[in-house]
Amino acid sequence: MSGRVLVGVKRVIDYAVKIRVKPDNSSVVTDGVKHSMNPFCEIAVEEAVKMKEKKIIKEVVVVSCGPQQAQETIRTALAMGADRGIHVEVTGKDYEQLGPLQVSKIMAALAKKEDAQLIILGKQAIDDDCNQTGQMTAALLDWPQGTFASELTMEGDKIKVVREIDGGLETVKINTPAVITADLRLNTPRYATLPNIMKAKKKKIANLKPADLEVDITSRLEVLRVDEPPQREAGVKVETVDDLVARLKEAGRI
Amino acid sequence: MLLGFRPSLRLLSHRHQRLQSRCVQSENTATSAAVDSVLSALRSICGEDGVSLGAAVREQHGRDESVHRCCPPDVVVFPRCVEEVSALAKVCQHHNLPIIPFGTGTGLEGGVSAVKGGVCFSLRNMDQVLDLHPEDFDVTVEPGVTRKALNSYLRGTGLWFPVDPGADASLCGMAATSASGTNAVRYGTMRENVLNLEAVLADGTVIHTAGKGRRPRKTAAGYNLTNLLVGSEGTLGIITKATLRLYGIPEAMVSAVCSFPSVQAAVDSTVQILQAGVPIARIEFLDDVMIDACNRFSSLSYAVSPTLFLEFHGSERSLEEQVLTAEDITQSNGGSDFQWALDAGTRERLWKARHDAWYAALALRPGCKAYATDVCVPLSRLPQIIVETKQDLIENRLTGPIAGHVGDGNFHCLMVVEPNDPDELQRVQMFTERLARRALAMDGTCTGEHGVGLGKRALLCEELGPEAVQVMQHLKDSLDPKNLMNPGKILQQREL
Fold it and tell me: Which of A69, A116, A113 shows the shortest CA–CA distance to A89?
């Protein structure tokens, strides 16, 4: 038992930023825009660090796929308490087209290489809202999955996962090794403190390329167009119920 | 110079009617006529979307979280940059229109009430965090940035802005009201934490109180214009940028609770903890009435007696020492049931009573409203003023549980009052005046945190004395000769 947890973190546009679409409708504006760690990834890192503090696991390894800036995101995770990082370098067009399928192949390869007992990911990224990477990773590894986790308890070599589902909460018990995806209520991530940010600078980040893991990151998807949601139009006040009914009929709603 | 105005009579009487139903002041007729003739000037600066005459929008911008009734402005404008603020101010200056700056509307003293109508400058669209310098511990923000938004922005840097008045207020608004909070005892108030301000004066001039872009940690350069504007509640200028002092996020925190047999014992403990050099971060006092309310509201079982809630910040090692010292001191003053916790979950539970205090007070009498008094006295006078105040509450059959930032000598009586009972409202009014005068008699102030706004103008004169008030009036007259900047606040109206 290596007692090692792999945590995936993604660098996304900060949740507080007002998103704008490029004039050519090819994608959203990212230049000069504040980026930070995906909020669900923060929760995943926090959960892993908590497990290490409780001595349930021995080492937290954090992974991010992307260009040079992905290292900042890894450093933030290191400042939260992760032990070391792995930066899988993906740049340019490859990075623009990087999606859950490619990332899950990378995570699966790393899980084997690092002999991980557990993979914890955020349930989804706030830029693409795919909610696929965790599930695909589990499938590629043929590992059990506990997704939308709002509570995790280790019970020997099994994990009890309370999952948030549409109807309420579902509790499952799965074997390890396993993939967990973190939902909002799993924990409240800590803020990195200055002394920990200092310490994180000394922690190691390994650099790899997808080819080093023998992973093919060709995308099968092509983004055709990105549009903003339609602008909200002014409402219209009507004087009587008859007016209202007439308008609704006109608009073909009834 | 007033332009000849020919307002549409129908529009004027319609608006006149609406305004009359809210603020019966004859000045509004002339003002609303003038506003009509400047609407196109305002729109040419802010764009069509940047000027609103909507009733709902005006009402929203004429009230804050105080008990003062809504006084809506005649029009609300939404500038996007300091150049627009300056141009708008010039238009208002030209047409003698009052200017009321608006941040988040979370003030407690009626500071955004447009008592003479006029133009409300809602600054919410200027919402950028600019110029963060982590190594220098400073950041510059626009008025639309709230304290929680800033701390969220800073979360990856290890830094935070600790002044916490409770509400998620605009930081520039906090500068305008010289806001404080529960951890002022360690981190200070806005007065200690604003390094520079960019502001637009009544005539549209843009000034930088410490010089453009400057942010030294200390300065001896000239008159302290930064702190002149801090606490000026929009009466001297519209703040469009604030450069703030940041601090490192504490490595660890410990929360503690302790009960005492008397108010004196609790305050003595506070004084001794401070004298022992413990860099305590928060030290909050709840009286027995408040604790009882909290027990009921949050299903807790604290001893119903004066209680201190303490919070310590530091490294894990220093926390041990701080907590042991504090515990010793509380014990020597008869304190009991000292509980403390390091992990976030237990800390939350220990402090739950303090966090829910406002709601617990309201729950004492459902359907009633609450008003918080705000006096602040030297620490040594705190036991006396609290005891006398509690006596006053009982004698006058008033509900006023007490919560206080006892490390600063500042406490709030949360007056829970039936808004439809004129007799009770009157008794509360008289009580708050007696309380303010009691504080003044003890070398204190009538407002530790909330500001003067509408309700404390007379008390300000008593507190400062006529000479100091005269100096304030001179400053006001020289910066705003037409009294257009948020009229009716801080200084009493004079006949011009």
Answer: A69
Question: Are B353 and B292 members of one domain?
Answer: yes
Are residue B185 and residue B113 in the same domain, yes or no?
Answer: no
- Do residues B208 and B326 share a domain? no
Tokens of B104: 């988040």
Would the CB atoms of B249 and A34 count as touching at under 8 Å? Answer: no
Residue A42 has phi, psi (to 5 degrees) of: -60, -45
Domain identity same for B176 and B266? no
Q: Is residue B340 part of a domain?
A: yes
Out of B158, B251, B344, the one facing A188 most closely (by C-beta) is B344
Which chain B positions have a beta carbon within 8 Å of A79's beta carbon? 158
**% of residues, chain B, pLDDT over 90:** 79
Q: Do B160 and A191 touch (CB under 8 A)?
A: yes
Tell me the C-alpha distance between A230 and A132, whole Å: 27
Q: What is the pTM of this model?
A: 0.89
Q: What angle do CA B335, B340, B343 make, to 5 degrees?
A: 170
Per the structure, the count of domains in chain B is: 3
Of B152, B159, B160, the CB nearest to A16: B152
Taking an 8 Å cut-off on Cβ atoms, the answer to whether B248 and A16 are in contact is: no
Give B252→chain A minimum CA distance, Å. 9
CB spacing of B158 vs A193 below 8 angstroms: yes
- CB spacing of A192 vs B156 below 8 angstroms: yes
> Which of B149, B251, B344 is facing A193, going by the closest CB pair?
B251
Output the CA angle B386-B390-B394, nearest 5 degrees.
170
Does pLDDT of B18 surpass 70? Answer: no
Of B60, B87, B122, which closes a domain?
B122
Residue B77 pairs in a beta bridge with B51, B121
CB neighbours of B468 closer than 8 A, spacing ≥ 6? none
Say which residues have a Cβ less than 8 Å from residue B343's Cβ, sequence separation at least 6.
none
CA-angle at B336, arms to B335 and B341, nearest 5°: 105
CA–CA min distance A195, chain B (Å): 8
Peptide bond into A177 cis (omega under 30): yes
- Domain of B44 in residue numbering reads as 37-122
d(CA A37, CA B82): 32
> If you measure CA to CA, which chain B residue comes closest to A192?
B158
Q: Which of B5-9, B28-32, B41-45, B372-376 has the lowest mean pLDDT?
A: B5-9
ipTM for this model: 0.87
Partners of B117 in beta bridges: B115
Domain-ending residue, one of B441, B461, B483: B441
* B424 min Cα distance to partner chain A (Å): 42
Regarding whether B148 and B116 lie in a shared domain, the answer is no
